[in-house]
Amino acid sequence: MLCHEFEDQLTDYLDGTLEVEAHKDFAAHALRCPVCHDLLSDVKNTLVACSASEAPPAGPELEARILLQTIPETAITCEEFEDYLTDYLDGFLVAPLYHRWERHASLCESCGELPGDVVRSIGACYTYKQDEMPVPVGLEARILQSTIGNVLPAQVRAPLSSRLVEWIRGALDPIVSPQLATVATMLLVAVFVLTNTVSTDGSVGGIYHASLQLAHKTADNATKSSVLPDGMKRFEGSVNDLMGTPDASGSEDQTNKNQNQSQNQNNAQQNSQGRRKDGTESKGR
User: Fold this and answer.
1) Cα distance between residue 267 and residue 113, in whole Å
2) Which of 121, 241, 248, 282 has its CA 20 to 30 A from that of 140?
3) How many angstroms separate the CA atoms of 209 and 229, rounded?
4) Tens of pLDDT along 12-34?
5) Which residues contact 140 (CB under 8 A, 6 or more apart)?
6) Quick one: three-class SS letters along the chain?
7) Are 27 and 7 in contact (CB under 8 A)?
8) pLDDT tens, position by position, 169-193
């Protein structure tokens, strides 16, 4: 076997597809020829190294080129790439369109650098946002002349409907502000709970009357206790004045006075009757 025949049959030998006689001749030539022997050893070592290592991951460019050759109708043009640039940066692109956009960016060099340039420009605008630039002379007049055809700002007014909507929005802004929403919710919940638990008729006035009755009962219990100081009795008197009810201590004093007067009158009548009896007995004697 010659060396070029050895090289031609090398793949079949490694795959094990050679016939028996050809396989013997191939092995005998590998033992006799040092060059072909080294070639066979290098190929075997390469195959072992390739089988032991993992396949490198396919990059986006390889995938984009494969899809461009197989299904070219899914590719987008540079004009469409620029149209979808804003949606891409805002994160509004749907998944199929997003992948098509990414594939075009990996294949087109000019379009691939465009998103980075736009992002850097936006960052520069935010960086220098606070730096006030002087307004060129006549710029405002030129803008007004180009847009509304009038250079007098005093004559430029918004429509009546727009001004009315703006006024309503300004009036409702304190009411619907997030800071007051929590407080208003807590007040509504408190009123709902009190009207269903404390109030007898389910109204706000019922809550007021129930609270006054509770205060009056508390004051009565305080005055009936003998160990309480005089300050609690004064508190009861203030509650009675607030409720518009007569004072309990004043009514008791008036009752005691009436009882004393009636007892005095009875004693006076008994004394007069006793004197009359004594006078009649003395006359009979």
Assistant:
1) 123
2) 121
3) 27
4) 888 888 888 888 888 888 888 88
5) 153
6) CCHHHHHHCHHHHHHCCCCHHHHHHHHHHHHHCHHHHHHHHHHHHHHHHHHHCCCCCCCHHHHHHHHHHHCHHHCCCHHHHHHCHHHHHHCCCCHHHHHHHHHHHHHCHHHHHHHHHHHHHHHHHHHCCCCCCCCCCCHHHHHHHHHCCCCCHHHCCCCHHHHHHHHHHHHHCCCCCHHHHHHHHHHHHHHHHHHHHCCCCCCHHHHHHHHHHHHHHHHHHHHHCCCCCHHHHHHHHHHHHHHCCCCHHHHHHHHHHHHHHHHHHHHHHHHHHHHHHHHHHHHHC
7) no
8) 777 666 556 666 677 788 888 888 8
**Cα of 147 vs its chain's centroid, Å:** 40
- The amino acid present at 29, given as its one-letter code, is H
Q: Is the pLDDT of residue 239 over 50?
A: no
> Whole-model pTM?
0.29
Q: Which of 141, 159, 139 is nearest to 149 (CA)?
A: 141
Closest CA to 1 of 29, 24, 30, 34: 29
Domain range summary for the chain, segments of one domain joined by +: 3-52, 60-125, 186-249
